[in-house]
Write a structure and sequence with these properties.
Largest sheet of chain B: none
Number of strands of chain A: 7
CATH architecture of one domain in chain B: Orthogonal Bundle
Distance between the termini of chain A: 58 Å
Strand content of chain B: under 5%
Strand order of the largest sheet of chain A: 5-4-3-6-7
Largest sheet of chain A: 5 strands, mixed
Oligomer: heterodimer
CATH superfamily of one domain in chain B: Cytochrome C biogenesis protein
Number of strands of chain B: 0
Order of helices and strands of chain B: HHHHHH
Radius of gyration of chain A: 20 Å
Number of domains of chain A: 1
Chain lengths: 174, 158
C-alpha cells in the first residue's frame, strides 16, 4: 500500500502545478511599474492639439489611464464597458491614444461615444514604451501621489472592475 | 484553367509579402546596425513571445529596435539599454533571466532535482546490496541442499 503513496503524491503535486500553469495567461506579463511612480509625460490632447496633458497635473487625484487605439480590436470590445464605468463616476478615465491617426481616433470616439475626460495623443508610441505597453488595451490605476497601483492588461472585464478596481479606488480615495 | 488559378493565388501571396513591413536598418552605419541586432537577439518580443526583438516584425519590436538604435547613437552601453527595457517591461524581456532570489528555483532547481535523484539512486542501490548480502547456510539448510543434490544410483540427475 505504502509503495503507491509516494508516486501518487508526486503525481498530485505535478497535476496541481500543471493546472495552475494552464490557468495563467502567458500574455500577461507582470509589470515592473506596479507601486512605482507613473512615468512623466506631456502630450498634445486629442481633441485640441494646441493644449497638452501631462501625468503630473493629475497629482492629488486617483485616476485611470486607459491605453487605446481605433485599430485595436479588443479596445472595441472594452469600449461599451468603459462608457458604463465612466458614467458611474467612480473614477475619472483618461485615454492614451496609442499610435493612432488623429482623424481615426476622433471618428471612433464620435461614433462609439467618449468615455474619457480627455485623451492624449501618443502618436509615435514613445510614452507607451515608457509605460511598458505591449498590447492595447492596457489600463493603469494611478493614485494621488502619482504611483501606479494596478495594471490591467487587455480589456477591463466586469469582474476585474467590481472585484479589483473599485475596491482599490475606494481604498486609495480614503 | 486550374493552373492559372493556382498561379494567380501564388501571385497574390507574393503581393502580400511584398506589402509586409520590413525593419528599416540604418544602412548608413552597418557597425551600429550589427550592435542593434546583436543586442536585440538577447531580448524577447512581448507581442510574439517566442521571437526575439531582432526577428519579430511586430510593430512594438520595430519601435523597440529603433529605441535601442537611438540610445546606442546617444552613447548608451548595452547594459544601460537592457536596464531601460527591464525597467519598463520586466525581466521577461530577457532571454537569459538574471540570477536573483525569485529565479533561484529556475536556475538551481534542475541541479537540486539531479542531486535528489542521485541520492535516491544510491539509497536504493545500498538497500538492494544489503538485501542480497551473502550469508552462510545453517546446518539444517545445508542438509536439505545435500539431500536435493544427491544423485541416486541408476538415475539421471534431475
Amino acid at each position: 500500500m505504502s509503495r503507491y503513496v509516494i508516486p501518487l503524491a508526486i503525481f498530485i503535486v505535478l497535476v496541481v502545478f500543471l493546472a495552475i500553469g494552464l490557468g495563467h495567461d502567458p500574455h500577461e506579463v507582470p509589470s515592473p511599474l506596479i507601486n512605482k511612480p507613473a512615468p512623466a509625460f506631456q502630450l498634445p490632447q486629442l481633441h485640441d492639439p494646441t493644449r497638452t496633458f501631462s501625468a503630473q497635473e493629475m497629482r492629488g487625484k486617483v485616476w485611470l489611464l486607459n491605453v487605446w487605439a481605433s485599430w485595436c480590436f479588443s479596445c472595441r470590445e472594452e469600449h461599451p464597458l468603459l462608457i458604463e464605468y465612466a458614467r458611474s463616476g467612480a473614477v475619472p478615465i483618461y485615454g492614451l491614444n496609442h499610435k493612432d491617426k488623429r482623424e481615426d481616433a476622433l471618428s471612433w470616439l464620435s461614433d462609439l461615444g467618449n468615455p474619457y475626460v480627455l485623451s492624449a495623443s501618443d502618436t509615435d508610441g514613445r510614452v507607451s514604451i515608457d509605460y511598458g505597453v505591449y498590447g492595447a488595451p492596457e489600463t493603469y490605476l494611478i493614485d494621488r501621489d502619482g504611483i501606479i497601483r494596478f495594471k490591467q492588461i487587455g480589456p477591463i472585464t466586469p469582474d476585474v472592475w467590481q472585484k479589483t478596481i473599485l475596491p482599490l479606488v475606494k481604498d486609495l480615495n480614503k | 484553367m486550374k493552373r492559372v488559378v493556382v498561379q494567380l493565388m501564388l501571385l497574390s501571396c507574393l503581393a502580400f509579402t511584398a506589402g509586409a513591413k520590413e525593419a528599416q536598418p540604418d544602412a548608413a552605419d552597418p557597425q551600429l546596425e550589427k550592435r542593434v541586432m546583436k543586442l536585440s537577439q538577447e531580448l524577447r518580443c512581448l507581442v510574439c513571445q517566442n521571437e526575439t526583438l531582432a526577428d519579430s516584425r511586430a510593430d512594438l519590436a520595430e519601435d523597440l529596435r529603433s529605441k535601442i538604435r537611438e540610445q546606442m547613437k546617444a552613447g548608451k552601453s548595452d547594459k544601460e539599454i537592457v536596464a531601460f527595457l527591464t525597467d519598463r517591461y520586466g525581466d521577461f524581456v530577457l532571454y537569459r533571466p538574471p540570477v536573483k532570489p525569485t529565479t533561484y528555483l529556475l536556475w538551481f532547481g534542475p541541479f537540486v532535482l539531479l542531486i535528489a535523484g542521485l541520492a535516491l539512486l544510491f539509497h536504493y542501490l545500498k538497500q538492494r546490496s544489503e538485501l542480497i548480502s551473502e550469508r552462510p547456510l545453517s546446518a539444517e539448510e545445508r542438509g536439505r541442499a545435500e539431500e536435493l543434490l544427491r544423485v541416486e544410483p541408476g538415475k539421471e540427475p534431475a
